[in-house]
Model the fold of this input.
Amino acid sequence: MVFMGTAPFSLLALRVLSASEKVAAVVTQPDRPRGRGRKVSPPPVKEFATDLGLPVLQPERVKDQDFISLLKELHPELIVVAAFGQILPSALLEIPPLGCVNVHPSLLPKYRGAAPINWAIIKGEARTGVTTYLMDEGMDTGDILLVQEAEVGRDETAQELGERLAELGAKLLLETIRGLKEGTLQPIPQDEEGASYAPMLKKDDGLIQWEWEAHQIRNQIRGMIPWPVAFTLWGGKRIKIYQGITGDGKGIPGEVISLQRAIEVACGERSLFIKELQMEGGRRMGWDEFARGHRLTLGERLG
Done:
């Protein structure tokens, strides 16, 4: 098989597959500038594959004919995809006789797209899961092979949920591959009426609207970790918020109404206790240290 993946979600799947299957090559995205210093760094999957001694391919575009020709020369029976980051063209999908299998961290057809884990939390879902499916030219639209459901923890962040779903996804991939080999799986078309989309997150998606209900804002905070992190504005600067708990306070949306157990801010309905935050250019800290160091006072408005 050939494995295609880029994001950290892919790592466990590659580890599990490489331990039980013959992986002819690993395909991942090119090295990119990352972090504050914008230093060119390899994707996590490349580093891991290199450590395993697996050949690594990094096409700029998987549609390029040279790459497709190279892939054909490997004669893969199966291509496995996990959080790769590009839509595969039909010329590539047609190469392996067993097809191209994707593992997607949602209960398809809900939350197709780039950020299903984040949006499931932001939208307040109580359950999600992972789905394996046979890929077509659409975005997560292919016939479903296997599904594994999972609860979303009440306090779970997108990072924590992603780690759990990566483990479930790796196990489901092994079960899927076994079923394809044995010919025991019956692909099921997706129900288009239940389809929804989870677009790639942008930095501005993290901007908190204090007019929202407190529980919505709390879900936004959880869903934006580890990136881009929910934020508000104060004194012309961004404040990233890492932890919030709903309360029953009242006031003008965005108003600081208490500094007792946390920084309590009024929302459109109820209030939010901010427990952990970070001023732009500063370090992450607890609410009490922040309130003292920045002279935050009652009645001030955030946002």
Observations:
- The radius of gyration is 22 Å.
- The longest helix spans residues 158-182.
- The helical segments are 9-20, 44-52, 65-73, 90-93, 116-122, 158-182, 214-223, 287-293.
